[in-house]
Amino acid sequence: MRLLLLACLRARTGNATTAARIQSHLHAAGHICVLKDAFMYESQTEIANLISTDKFDGALAIHLYKGGRLLQGSRIPFGIIFGGTDVNEDVKCEEKHRVMGAVLEEARFAVAFTVKMKELAAAEWPDARKKIYVQTQGIKTTPKETFDWYRFLQNAGIPTDTGSLHVFLLICGLRRVKDPLYLVDVFSDWHRKEPSIHLGIIGPAVDPLFTSEVKEKVKRAPGVHLLQEMPQDDLHAAMKRCFAVVNSSISEGMSAAILEAMDLNIPVLARNIPGNAAIIKHKETGLLFSNPQKSTESLLHEDGDLHYHICTHRNSLPMALWILP
Predict the structure, then answer these.
(1) How far is CA 81 from CA 64, 124, 253, in A?
(2) What is the Cα 42 distance to its own chain's centre?
(3) What DSSP state is assigned to residue 282?
(4) Which tens digits make up the pLDDT trace of 203-224?
(5) How many whole angstroms separate alpha carbon 267 and alpha carbon 262?
(6) Are the beta carbons of 99 and 75 closer than 8 angstroms?
(7) Which one, of 203, 215, 283, 208, lies nearest residue 248 by Cα?
(8) What does the alpha-carbon distance between residue 152 and residue 148 come to, in Å, rounded to a whole number?
(9) Quick one: pLDDT band at residue 18, thresholds 50, 70, 90?
(10) Are 267 and 314 spatial neighbours (Cβ–Cβ below 8 Å)?
C-alpha cells in the first residue's frame, strides 16, 4: 500500500521521533509510507489534492486534532494515532473537542499507546470505543560510540574537575505542557547543598516566548543548565552517561524519553501523571513524584511529600533514587 503519514515534524520532538519509527516499520513491512508535516498544510483541500496527486491508498495521522482534522472528508480510509495533548489538553477546548469527535467518527480506527489513554478518549466520545485499539509504543536507542561526555559537560558549563558528578537530564520540547520549570528551584536548592548535583534541560525551542522564560529562569538557578538540542544518537549517548532522566510534564501520551532511558538502563524520575504512571511502576521500573518541595531540607528529610537520597552505587538497587510518597 501507498500510505500518507501526517504528523507534527518539528525536529527532535517526540512526535517526529514516533512518526519516523512508524514510517520505518511500515517500510519494513513492505509498504510505501510518505511522511508529511501537518504544520505545512492549512486546509483539508490541500491534503485532498496531495492524496489525489500522489495516489495514496490510505492515511495515518498522529494527533487527533493537529493531524486528524486535515483528513476530514478524505476519499481514502484513514486511521488516527493519539498524540497525548489531543486527549489530555485539547479536549478542554469546545471547538477542538467538536472537530476531534467528527474526525474520530470518520476514522476507520484509532490507536492509543495506553489503556488509560483509550479510556480518556472513550469517555469523551463513547461511540468510538470499539474502534480504539491499544498498542504500546516501541522504541530503539542508538547511542553514539564516539560521543565525548566531557566536552558535553564543558559545553553545558558543568565543571568536570570535581569528584563524583550526578547529572540529571530533562529531555523535552520547550513548551508549557512539558513544564520544564517545575523542578528548577528544587534542583537549584539541592545543588547549593550538594554541588555534585546538576540538572540539564535539553530540547528544541518549540514555543519561542516560553523558551525566553525558561532561559531567564535558568540564568538565576545555579546547578541548572539549558542545553542545545542534539542529534538523537548523541542524545542517547548523553542519556547513557547521566545519573537519571527526569520528566516533569503536565501531560504525556507516552514519553519516548522515558522509554529510551529504560532501554538504556538509566533510572527514571517522572511526574505522577496518567501517561507516566502507565509505563512506570513506582520503585520498580521508575520513580514517580507529585509535589516537589522548594528547599533542600524538605528534599533530604522525610518532612515533605518528595525527597531524594543519592545511592553510592547506582546498580545496588533497582533505581538510584528513592522518592517516598
Answers:
(1) 7, 16, 10
(2) 25
(3) B
(4) 888 899 999 999 999 999 999 9
(5) 7
(6) no
(7) 203
(8) 6
(9) confident
(10) yes
Strands 58-62 and 2-7: parallel
pLDDT band at 17 (very low <50, low <70, confident <90, very high): confident
Distance separating alpha carbons of residues 163 and 67, to the nearest angstrom:
49
Cα–Cα distance for residue pair 84/74, rounded to 1 Å: 23
Of the listed ranges 12-16, 169-173, 206-210, the least confidently predicted one is: 12-16
Q: Are 66 and 83 in contact (CB under 8 A)?
A: yes
Dihedral class, residue 30 (left if φ above 0, else alpha if ψ from -120 to 50, else beta): left
Residue with cell 492509543: 112
DSSP codes, 213-234? HHHHHHHT-TTEEEE----HHH
Region of 198 on the Ramachandran plot (φ > 0 left; ψ -120 to 50 alpha; else beta)? beta
Sign, CA dihedral 294-300-303-306, equals: positive
For the chain, the straight-line distance linking the first and the last C-alpha, in angstroms and rounded, comes to 50
Q: CA 94: distance to chain centroid?
A: 25
H/E element, 297: helix 296-300
Residues 6+ apart with CB under 8 A from 91: 97, 100, 120, 124
DSSP-derived letter for residue 290 is S
Q: What pTM, to 2 d.p., does this model score?
A: 0.77
Q: Are 318 and 283 in contact (CB under 8 A)?
A: yes
Cα–Cα distance for residue pair 259/203, rounded to 1 Å: 16
Cell of 221: 538557578
Hey, is 2 helix, strand or coil?
Answer: strand
What are the CA-CA distances from residue 4 to residues 17, 172, 217 (Å)? 16, 27, 41
